[in-house]
């Protein structure tokens, strides 16, 4: 097994792409359960928010109702259908979607594109913390419309908070099961939910078909300028709530496949539009109903349901609200994984519970979002307060995605004129939504903006710190150091550290080594061993790959090993390396290793191992700019809390040493010391 075997394996691994998930009934159910939760529960609170912003049901008339519903319909059509389903889903990176996948395609177009990528990704992750809280709280508050439940719960908001917290905790606990298993459970429920939306809305549309005039976009535009629009342009902030799940739809493409989104979106959109039209028809019929004037936080979605089926509708909406959070949670896993691959975030431990690589679970992200949702529920407590904060951050993400899509269409797809029309139209449209949502900042929007700023700071620090590291990084040819390694392993003036000294490296070039590793072996303290091992782990696009390749450089003491492991394979490097050592010993490529001491009667044929973890550090005398020093310091602070490679690679019970090597930067000039004698200071 030499370099040719390694090269062939590498070519095969690099040529693999994530396969397109085929369209099937099962996959479509998963899509309905995973992707559409956020946008699918918007009918529960969009019309309620529109009413609240206009002074309540006592202030509405036909112009308001038709105009507001028209704005909602065309918001969903333009942003979700046109921008995301018809355009954005075509911009995938090996089947993965989302703003970071899009950036990875266009990043060579201009260096500054990293800014909208980080800004949009940060805002989307921050918004994902608010989504579970607002949807679940809204549904739980809907339980109060059932007299029997209201008799138990009363108007005490603390009861709502407690139930919401229990549901939020249960939701994040089940994430470890993977989106495929979750989707199989959630899919049938969401399918029935969308049917319920469509049927309940259609019943009122048939009774008051005048609401169909809302399909005319002119009514929406004229209503924006009408004196009956008490909120002015700010009403767009409430309309925007109808499409906040569009970005998550794009991010979740890798979990379910583009084809399954194409196949299910028409059904979903029809049901959504029927629900909005039905609520509009109910408002037309009840605009002058004085009995409704005294209901606090009137919600047309629940009020339009007949008394006989309202309890069922509230329970179903509660289930849908729980599922709604899934779109942002799964999207967050994908976003963080892609950000790590782009070196915008630290590497984290990733699990693949399903047979598809796009379906992943990141414990650290799950725990952080879990904690964030709990904080949101405790901080805002009511859905009205949460709705006031919701949507501001996601408008930022949409504008950033539009900018990146322009470069994708113009630079990658080589389209000449349409990209300019696209970017002008959607930046203007989303700009209106952004400015209309700015009033939310002081009503709670500050929370997601501050959270987005924190995530952005982490990304910027990690990115800038990595950039400083890359400037000092240097790969050295292994062949130039073989003689030194040979002399060192025979130099008995140094104590033998172990039989097998092992280093992990991210470098994929088999004939080169990181300078930091060689510095650790020779300069920190010469490390004498019988054999030196340099390991690289590459995750393939197949779930169950178990392969390795070895380059020995014509020696029997230096080995470069590349593991090709499937994404579902537990990366137990210690166990796999022992197998490699056994194979090489059996083939004669590695001299026999003798172990004289053991708790067993017969010592094993393999000698001792020691894994050396090399960490970079910035020396105090390093001559770097204060900004670069801060970036490095922040990156290393983040790294300490992001997890350990010892855990990722199953080395908890192995003999591991940690070594810190300095960044090879310029050093400040040190003042020359003058030797003096004690008598001179007596």
Oligomer: single chain
Rounded mean pLDDT score: 82
Number of strands: 8
CATH fold group of the largest domain: Amino acid/polyamine transporter I
Q: What would CATH call the architecture of the largest domain?
A: Up-down Bundle
From the alpha-carbon coordinates, what is the Rg to the nearest angstrom?
Answer: 30 Å
Give the overall form: elongated
Class computed from helices, strands and strand pairing = alpha/beta
Helix content: 55-70%
Ranges where pLDDT stays below 50 over 5 or more residues in a row are 1-18
Q: How far from one another are the termini?
A: 71 Å
Write the layout of secondary structure elements.
Blueprint: H1 3-15, H2 25-34, H3 37-40, H4 46-53, H5 62-87, H6 99-106, H7 114-142, H8 147-153, H9 157-173, H10 179-207, H11 217-224, H12 235-239, H13 246-251, H14 253-256, H15 258-286, H16 300-303, H17 310-341, H18 363-380, H19 383-389, H20 392-412, H21 418-437, H22 445-472, E1 475-477, H23 482-490, E2 496-504, E3 512-514, H24 515-524, E4 528-539, E5 546-551, E6 558-565, H25 573-587, E7 609-617, H26 626-641, H27 645-648, E8 656-662
Parallel strand pairs: 2-4, 2-7, 4-6, 7-8
Antiparallel strand pairs: 1-3, 5-6
Helix pairs in contact: 2-10, 2-15, 5-11, 5-15, 6-7, 6-20, 7-9, 7-17, 7-18, 7-19, 7-20, 7-22, 9-18, 10-15, 10-17, 20-21, 22-26
